[in-house]
Design a protein that fits this description.
Elements lengths: L7 H19 L4 E2 L1 H8 L3 H9 L5 E2 L3 E3 H11 L6 E6 L3 H8 L2 H4 L2 E8 L8 E2 L2 E5 L3 H8 L3 E4 L3 H13 L4 E4 L12 E4 L2 H21 L1
Parallel strand pairs: 4-5, 4-8, 5-7, 8-9, 9-10
Antiparallel strand pairs: 1-3, 2-3, 6-7
Helix pairs in contact: 1-4, 2-3
The chain binds 1,4-dihydronicotinamide adenine dinucleotide.
1,4-dihydronicotinamide adenine dinucleotide (NAI) binds next to helix 5, strand 5, helix 8 and helix 9.
């Protein structure tokens, strides 16, 4: 199953399908029509059919979708059928909060190490994983087959540290620092900005007030 021609918009929706299908599986649902999936997910049935047709459909006329099969296939497309080792750079508030979140492991994301420059953190552990100093980074990446670097450091340091990761063969960065990294094209970067999500929430609150004031 080739994933390279699929639009980013579809890719962005896949984790949501995956989550809903996982919940259906937990409830013991074995199959579901696109109409029922549409009602649960509040996405049009035609959108669902269109999205899933990108991957050969998975559905059968009159039968609907086999939940477990669809879940497994979407998991494969998202690369969740393999483990991904990751490290967190910046063991402050956010870095430690992410490290404490156990559910990433269930999805195959294995936290191998935490790194920081603050000597006061050296040797402290989060979920049994010690915080190491940056001097150990290079060897650690090689020895532990690290695929993903998570950046939870101040934005002023993010570009420098991202380059250091890339120089040490890290090819995927989950960037929480509020800055664009501008890395080579063969490096995959996923930016996460909670404040942008909050701004969208704020916009919708303002719009809601506006609409209700005008009535
Ligand atoms: P924090 O100050 O608690 O933690 C930052 C840690 O990075 C500190 O332990 C510090 O010693 C370490 N650090 C600084 N320079 C370093 C370097 N060169 N190499 C390795 N470690 C280094 O800050 P907090 O609250 O955890 O935030 C971390 C970053 O995440 C900030 O840039 C903040 O703006 C950002 N952030 C982003 C969010 C998002 O939605 N994208 C949400 C919350 C925070």
């Amino acid at each position: 199953m080739e994933g390279h021609d699929i639009s980013q918009a579809v890719i962005r929706r896949l984790p949501r399908y995956y989550r809903y299908l996982g919940e259906l599986m937990e409830q013991g649902v074995e199959r579901i029509s696109s109409n029922d999936l549409s009602k649960t997910m509040k996405v049009t049935a035609s959108q669902i059919r269109q999205d899933l047709n990108n991957f050969g459909g998975f559905g059968q006329q009159g039968y609907g979708y086999n939940v477990k099969y669809l879940y497994t296939e979407i998991g494969k497309i998202l690369g969740l059928d393999e483990n991904h080792n990751y490290i967190i750079i910046g063991a402050g508030n956010l870095g430690q909060a992410l490290a404490n979140y156990q559910s990433f492991e269930k999805r195959g994301f294995i936290l191998k190490g935490l790194f920081d420059v603050n000597p006061a953190l050296k040797g402290k552990t989060v979920r049994g994983i010690p915080i190491r100093m940056m001097e150990e980074l290079k060897d650690f990446i090689q020895e532990n087959h690290i695929e993903i670097g998570v950046l939870t450091i101040p934005k002023e340091k993010a570009v420098e540290v991202a380059n250091l990761l890339v120089d040490n063969d890290i090819r995927a960065i989950w960037n929480f620092a509020h800055t664009d990294l501008n890395l080579p094209d063969n490096v995959i970067v996923e930016n996460v900005h909670l404040s942008e999500s909050l701004m969208r929430l704020s916009y919708n609150i303002s719009r809601y007030h506006q609409e209700h004031k005008d009535r």
